Amino acid sequence: MRLISLLLATVLSCNIAVAAEPAHRPNTITVTGKGEVQVEPDQVVMTVAVDTFGRDLDAARRQNDERVEKILALSREFSIPARDVRTARMTMETLRETTKRDEQYDDLRHANPVRGYLISKRLTLRLTDLGKFDAFYLQLLRTGVCEFAYVDFETSRHREHRDAAR
Fold first, then answer.
1. Cβ atoms within 10 A of the Cβ of 103, count?
2. How far apart, in whole angstroms, are the C-alpha atoms of residue 161 and residue 166?
3. Could you tell me which residues come within 8 angstroms of residue 112 by beta carbon, excluding any fewer than 6 positions away?
4. Which of 117, 119, 144, 156 could form a disulfide with 64 if both were Cys (CB 3.0 to 4.6 A apart)?
């Protein structure tokens, strides 16, 4: 009996909830989308890394500075304005001797003898004359660049093209 009463109360409350909904809902359509603008690039932006290692900190730093200077000289040779060449990041890491035991205990590692120093600089360069890209890229490889973090072909008028597409 108790079960029947509970079931009847549940059915009645559902009917009341359905009756409370509006009888007519306007028909709606929801649309989502993604726009992509593809245009011919007019510039290339490169981030290059120059890494040097040395047992002596000053020697490692000097060697890194020499390699970076070669890149700066090359950018001047290719008429890249100074505003389009910038240092994106610099790091200096002390490398120490390690053992299996040191990997478990961070405090012990800092007491180990220094193996050397790793100096790293990342430069971002923007080349606006795409006709010079191949020659510039080849010369960059010869300067001591350790890594091309990325090479992106872009448009300098991205905002203008995006607004026109809208």
1. 10
2. 9
3. 96, 97, 98, 99, 102
4. 119
